């Protein structure tokens, strides 16, 4: 009998950003955040976890075929320990259960998108780890309860335990028991929500978000005002999502992205994630909305120069038309939705971008995706581990 | 008898920025600001004003040889009207005075720095206009009183009526009577304060500061916090100047520049003045300070990509060494101070800029100047007007 489970988990991109911890060990944020879960059909982390009494002592983990050290007391170890503890409680109650909690683990994880894509893989990766262990251990905990564990692995990972539109509530308990993720609306509620990821080249590696956000907490005065306005913004965007009010959703998303990058700039020394290409994408989206006479697209930027542009499915041809025109990509664009391209709306002022647009490759590539579901438990045939408990990729 | 006066006035660069008006007509700011007046030996506006009963009716003004319309009720007209009013009061009291206030004016103004240098010329230009008219009319008003008039021409012009280190007090009177400039310290108090202006190329014309700042007032939530923290910053930088504490002066200057650009980014739609080259200059200055083990340089950016780097005279060789190394200029650098260049401090991490530095001309040119004096009344030989009241340049 092989005790093993494989699960995949999605990437999420926040509309209301997480930036700042009030507790760095427990990963408790200074403000609530809200994200859209992206479709795993396009971007996902997959993780297989296996427990076996015959494994050599000690847990081992491979990420994309490379073994990672599970540091004692580190974030991975904390997640594994918590889930194992819950399994132990079950085993203590039901004596017939196999003692999986006592057996060493072998875990293999794989991201189907290149690290070079500049997408944070820690959220989907940690969520997949938690989902696969929860499945392996047959844990009864709800996704929100599991999100408490994922949160301690990588803050925004907690949001990847749900599909659709997801809030991470900051909570008030100093121990973190109420700092968890919950669904605001399912993907089925608003399936027309699509996203275009613009992968922007950057010569320089930026500040890591982990260290950057604490610098902001320590040195930015403007962060105080941000923390005062985010609760209202959380309410407003939740309502916009429930009402499927794209214009309002978009305004709040762009406002919050700009507010987040503003507090980064207000940090000492200042943190810059947006570069000239990011700025130009903002200008194109703003002008697209102006020329369209309504807000049809919303940009948002995480801790890097890549843009994610949210738009409704029907308006993606306009977004693609504008982006492809000004930012010829170096990588071929394969659109899973076979969306066409529409011309710029009449009255679009092409002067907002530099003459002739940008050089090929300023935007490396485009990824078209949409709102997606939460973690999926996959069949055996998707296992990443070989018989010996070593990733198949290495066998 | 020719009634004429010629005056020159300096450029000023704010350390605590002016951004936002509480009254757009009177130009009353949302916060106090503080600047360093730069040396007129290097950068100046010169203005000649002449009153003559024989001139055709109506005032006329030329800027760099090009006639500008003096719009009824416009900012130029308001300044002229106020000063003429003060002259009228004198004439009413002293009946022997020539009735200059009744005569048409001819005004010629000239900036010795190219508009392309990207330096705001409105401050020095308006200050020179006010100074020349005050001299022509023999007005007894103090520089602070004159600053009330210059302020209505172009907000930050009020600070160019003083040399040294100058505060523009926001004031509380709705009529603006106490929103004026005053000296915090003279140039003689801290003559070692030098400045290096890095003229940065930008493909795109940015948002004008006049419209940009009101967009910020209307849409930025973070501005509220900025307005709360600026008063303390004003006190602290005034104390730093009085104590000649460069490190504190520099920290506050950089913090406020970043805070200003942060609220620009927090504006809807966002306003960007810093580009990738500006960011790189910031990175070089931050790294220079880190590697030097003390704060020897402070960057500040106005509503454009140009950097102004404040440093003490003794440390300019380090600043020049770093900037010239990473940003080869397209224009020859002529240093009026013949300052040498020092190597990067040991331990300077060159990884903060992109490999090989920037291409020639990313920084177009450098201007080395220092703290300077206030407006100067010049001799007749400096007059910009020919016999007929038309600029000599056109004669």
Describe the secondary-structure layout:
The structure is a homodimer of 395-residue chains.
Chain A: E1 3-10, E2 12-16, E3 21-23, E4 28-29, E5 33-37, E6 44-51, E7 60-63, E8 66-68, H1 75-93, E9 105-111, H2 122-136, H3 143-153, E10 165-168, E11 181-185, E12 193-200, H4 209-219, H5 222-242, H6 246-265, H7 276-292, E13 297-301, E14 307-312, H8 316-326, E15 363-370, E16 376-378
Parallel strand pairs in A: 7-9
Antiparallel strand pairs in A: 1-6, 1-16, 2-5, 3-4, 5-10, 6-9, 7-8, 10-11, 12-14, 12-15, 13-14
Helix pairs in contact in A: 1-2, 1-3, 2-3, 5-6, 7-8
Describe this structure as you would to a colleague.
The structure is a homodimer of 395-residue chains. Chain A has 395 residues and is of the alpha+beta class. The first copy, chain A, has two domains: 194 residues, Ribosomal Protein S5, domain 2 (2-Layer Sandwich); 178 residues, Alpha-Beta Plaits (2-Layer Sandwich). Helices cover 32% and strands 21% of the residues of chain A. In chain A, a hairpin with a 4-residue loop joins strand 3 and strand 4. In chain A, helix 1 runs antiparallel to helix 3. Chain A is globular. The mean pLDDT of chain A is 95. Chains A and B meet through helix 5, helix 6 and helix 7 of A and helix 5, helix 6 and helix 7 of B. Chains A, B: It is an enzyme of class 4 (lyase). Chains A, B: This is Diphosphomevalonate decarboxylase.
